[in-house]
Batch of 3 targets.
Target 1
Amino acid sequence: MLKAFPHYWKTAVAALAPLYLLIQSAVSDDQVTTDEWAKIGGAVLGVILVWAVPNAPKPPVHEPATDRTPHM
């Protein structure tokens, strides 16, 4: 499981946002309002989108030319 973590670190970090919002909403006044649920839902949607969109692939490595003589 830990070997796959580098592929999902963005998702793991993004998952902290709705968790924080839920804890902050519940602790501040012992209830979660409809508006707060909407914000938490938006944060969860953000986590899903972060997970669904893959990282951009690394560009191919171009090796420098070693032979500078023109070929005819």
Note: The chain is about 60% helix and 0% strand.
Target 2
Amino acid sequence: MEEAYHTMTYGNIPLKLDTGNGMVFPKGIEILARVNQETGEVTFFIDRKNLEQLK
């Protein structure tokens, strides 16, 4: 069984993939983590609805 989780960096800031220069706040796409509950394996992924922003 697998379950998806939000990722966090220091200070509870979401882990993001840099997609451009933001003046005040960096632009980015949140990176999520999928955890296999049986093996403990963690896979990072981007939600399908955000994939278009990478093109």
Note: The chain has a mean pLDDT of 87.
Target 3
Amino acid sequence: MTNRIGNKDIAQQRSKSEKARVKASNIANEAVKKAIAKEKYRNAVKRQPASQD
């Protein structure tokens, strides 16, 4: 749930530039996570448990 200001959610009070900045940072964070996961499992053998590193 979002916090509330009176009868409106805080999310409704964000400006367009702030929303764009948050969206861009979220996309960048997801790209980093995907790159880490891709590198981690790049040479993994299928149907075998991942090695404990």
Note: The chain has one helix and two strands.
